[in-house]
Amino acid sequence: MIDALVITAIVIAILVFILVLILQKRKIQEKPLPEKYKPILLQYVPFYNGLDEENKKTFESRMAHFLSSVRITGVQVIVEDLDRVLVAASAIIPIFAFSNWEYSNLNEVLLYPENFSENFELEGDNRSVMGMVGWGAMQNTMVISQHELREGFLNNTGKQNTAIHEFVHLVDKTDGATDGIPENIMQRQYILPWLDLMQKNIKEIIKGRSDINPYGATNQAEFFAVVSEYFFERPDHFKTKHPELYGLLEEIFNQQPKQANK
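RE: above sequence
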């Protein structure tokens, strides 16, 4: 009995030692966000500008962690600092209120120069895809058009942001189903009201009675991603036009994004 307790204690001590080494190694490998990235954030990311100084530092730290964990690779395009900042910012915006969030379902972001096909091809017809979460051989990979990535932040009046859209899909997907119900971040009491409100608004889109991007009527997953773009890009306008949707998204993301001029 004593021997078993001793062995158990030794095993626990070894596991704790290994965990400490891993955490120390991770801390050493992670570098702070480069100073040259901060002016880019200030110029192009309204969400960041809406934060107080303490939360700006937290945002920068989480961006640095993301960039140390996920590769950003250009395909027929050069990945510039602007692209790295915008991809990382897009990743952090939806999950900013969840301090321990990790994109466990993402290893790499592939940056294409323009739109592509559903088979991730850059040539031929039907190249209408702006961004996509990979599947099959592309599992744990996101593909996004560099043009659309930048346009989402450079457009001063737009309600769309392709990169945020795709990261919202990843958040949705982490519970095992991309269905517009992000159960890993959503409190259970909001699920039924959210389902009802989604169906109500999808019907309004189909009837042409809504200013929400018609693509949101494709299915529940696309509706969630589309209205999330709107919520983070134009929060004041969204709150005025869609107060019920705004209120539920506020609960889902645990955030009140501040409107800031782009």
